[in-house]
Specification:
It contains nine helices and six strands. It is an alpha/beta fold. It has a single domain, classed as Alpha-Beta Barrel (TIM Barrel). It has a four-stranded parallel sheet. A two-stranded antiparallel ribbon has the order 1-2.
Length: 179
């Protein structure tokens, strides 16, 4: 209901401004079409992931905020655990990798997969993506590809590795399909 309410607020503003022409003059007699507005939501809590089918009714896209989703799933703050607890967890073998660098496949990753599946079941054409550190991590990108996400976003310095990882995921998926 919250997303429906927020969407209605945005749409009411759009209606107020809909008397504007569909194109915009950019000088010298040239015109460009005004962009279509899409409305989406961040999936940053386990509850949002589990309620993705309901959210999809009102959203044109989901953007998975995996840093916050990781914090909420593990129940700890990245700032609080990264310097003290995380090294101890990794050394003791409680975690294989730092879940803020490489997505936790069985917890956070499964929530992403569940949300993607439920969101697409409710709205077939919904766009799904991820933002945050995981968007530039090859292992995480492979999971996002398997989950059916459409895009990843990451910091500029990670774009080359993200593109390579995305290509490798697609090629790996094609190899699996032909077996």
């Amino acid at each position: 209901e919250e997303l429906a309410l927020a969407r209605s607020w945005v749409e009411s503003v759009l209606v107020e401004h809909s008397t504007r022409p569909k194109t915009k003059s950019i000088g010298r007699g040239k015109k460009v079409a005004r962009p279509k507005v899409t409305i989406g939501t961040m999936i940053e809590t386990p509850r949002a992931a589990l309620c993705a089918n309901e959210l999809a009714e009102y959203a044109d896209f989901f953007s998975f905020g995996t840093n916050d989703l990781t914090q909420m799933t593990f129940g700890f703050s990245r700032d609080d655990v990264e310097s003290r607890m995380m090294p101890a967890y990794l050394e003791a073998g409680l975690l294989k990798r730092n879940p803020f660098e490489t997505i936790d496949q069985t917890g956070v990753g499964e929530l992403v997969e569940i949300a993607a599946k439920r969101g697409r079941k409710a709205k077939r054409g919904i766009k799904l993506g991820v933002c945050g550190e995981h968007g530039g991590d090859p292992e995480s990108i492979a999971l996002f590809y398997r989950a059916g996400l459409d895009y990843v976003s990451c910091s500029p310095y990670r774009v080359p590795i993200a593109r390579l990882a995305a290509a490798q995921s697609v090629i790996g998926g094609l190899k699996t399909e032909t077996k």
